[in-house]
Amino acid sequence: MWLSFALGACRGPGPDEAQQPDDTAAQPDASSAEAEAKPLVLRLEPAGEPSPAQELVESASGKQGAVASAEANASRIGVEIMQAGGNAIDAAVAVGFALSVTQPSAGNIGGGGFMVIRFPDGKATAVDYREEAPGAATADMYLDESGELTNKSTVGALAAGIPGDVAGFWYAHQKWGTLDWKQVVEPAVALARDGWTLDEEHAKDLGYAAKRMTDKGFPDSAKTFLKPDGSNFAVGEVWTQPELAATLQRIADEGRDGFYAGPFAAHMAAQVQELGGIWTAEDLANYDPVERQPLIFDYRGRQIIAMPPPSAGGVVLRQILAASEALDMGKKPWHSVDQVHHYVEILRRTYADRNLLLGDPDFIEIPMETLLDVSYIDERVADIDPKKATPSSEVGAGVEVKESEQTTHFSVVDGSGLAVANTYTLNGGFGAKVVVPGTGVILNNEMDDFTAKVGSPNMFGLIQGPQNAIAPGKRMLSSMTPTIVVEDGKLRAVVGSPGGPTITTTVAQIILQLIDYDRSLLDAVRELRIHHQWMPDAIWYEEGLDPKLMKGLENKGHELKTRSWRIGHANCIEVGPSTGAYTAVADVTRDGGSASAY
């Protein structure tokens, strides 16, 4: 029916919200702009049956394929794609689109991300489909007349970068997928069209989204998450998204061009402009993912494959692990005062480098060779005092240069050993709090990940430098850290997490436990987490850690802040060294997730 390092890179053919700082006032005239939106004519296939409620599975094992993601329907779909003859790339694309339906706070197709891939022959690559600044973007676009920051980098259409999800998935599928494109997209179409049964977490999320969008001045966007009578959805009710279903159907039928070209792209650009944004149809048409050489380095005899800039994740992870090896951290009991103190001091130094030196390598010079060099990393941690904390105000970047946490991660492995680590995002929960009329597409607020004003924190408290300043077509620095671990030439683990700046520390803590402490992936994912990011100068920790540990850290001069919400949400896969079986582990103790395998 019809509805009214100078790293080698090549461009392809051709995005706890409740805890983020208040993004305050609504954008001017937002609701009136929404009211004037014209409907977009899109096609929908006949309806089927809604997906029933899915059981959350913390761990699942098999030898043919495995998926760990933030939502049960998505994990199920990924395994079904592999059972139908698809490979891990096909499954990853299907999972990515499914999460755009079932994890709207983070996985909607209005965002962007990164994909790290390891092939059965041991070769690896990385796909950068991060959002980029529109062509009309300027370095001072979020400052008022007094030079102070406004909230426009977090709320409203001006906060949105050009999304990369669809282009990234299309690129990966066209280059390495085996099934027909429509076959991997249509499960998501069906989920959106026919609906799926809400559990407690997702029913709560929809109510939260509707309230936030209304409070920020976007009541028409809020209707996407409410029943026709304006009431909230309850547990056990079915939520359908006909506009998103039609958009996904167009993408299934037309591929990349169904989103980035033709009448749909023109409609998207026009609506974003009506809502105060600066997208153009040309911005969408010109967007391309970038295939990059991944960062590959050794840690204690294992090979780590990670994402290069504009993700900061791989660089920071390299520095954390190399520093941990230099300080022989594996000999310090896990979560002892001595271990956590040294770990935090490592983070303090690595995040100073991250925040001040990194950005989009296609726009700036990054001293990659130095940052990744073991001698440099050893020098950075040589001044750690084992008896007391170093104030972050005394720690700067080690190199002089000339110049939300609402993310979601999934891991996929197929029977051949092809592995995919994928992290993508809208940035804050439900992005910019705007749904593009007639499309079901939620706008990201990734522009806040740029340095809008040097010395001022973004929504995650990160204080960044001019390396990450806004420029047209530039990609904003990210913390996303999709990572693959190889041991003795064989796949060992696929790791990743959402969580804004806590992503890399979450991934590091899991890898340290797997390698240094010989823990199972399940135990490593369940373990309580700690985070430090240079500024603000405090250790953030999850509730439940030993009070003696907290007291010992305070005695060394650390400021401690508990987090009422969890750090990260790791959905990972490990390979049994002796059995070769894949075990998918979902971080179900931290707001859901589900594992599936066969």
TrEMBL record:
Q: Where does L-glutamate bind?
A: R130, T425, L426, N427, D449, S478, S479, G500
- Pfam families found in the cross-reference section: G_glu_transpept
Give the protein's recorded name.
Glutathione hydrolase proenzyme
- Xref: SUPFAM superfamilies: N-terminal nucleophile aminohydrolases (Ntn hydrolases) (SSF56235)
Q: Which InterPro entries match?
A: GGT_bact, GGT_lsub, GGT_peptidase, GGT_ssub_C, Ntn_hydrolases_N
Specify the pathway.
Sulfur metabolism; glutathione metabolism
Q: Where is this region: Disordered?
A: 10-63
- The protein's superkingdom reads Bacteria
- Is Hydrolase found in the keyword set? yes
The molecular function GO annotations come to: glutathione hydrolase activity; leukotriene C4 gamma-glutamyl transferase activity
Enzyme Commission numbers on file: 2.3.2.2, 3.4.19.13
One GO term (biological process): glutathione catabolic process
- Which family is this sequence assigned to? Belongs to the gamma-glutamyltransferase family.
Catalytic residues of the enzyme: T407
What are the alphabetically sorted keywords of the record?
Acyltransferase, Glutathione biosynthesis, Hydrolase, Transferase, Zymogen
For this protein, what post-translational modification is recorded in UniProt?
A: Cleaved by autocatalysis into a large and a small subunit.
The record's catalysed reaction(s) read:
glutathione + H2O = L-cysteinylglycine + L-glutamate; an N-terminal (5-L-glutamyl)-[peptide] + an alpha-amino acid = 5-L-glutamyl amino acid + an N-terminal L-alpha-aminoacyl-[peptide]; an S-substituted glutathione + H2O = an S-substituted L-cysteinylglycine + L-glutamate
Query: Is-annotated flag, keyword Acyltransferase?
Result: yes
Spell out the subunit comment.
This enzyme consists of two polypeptide chains, which are synthesized in precursor form from a single polypeptide.
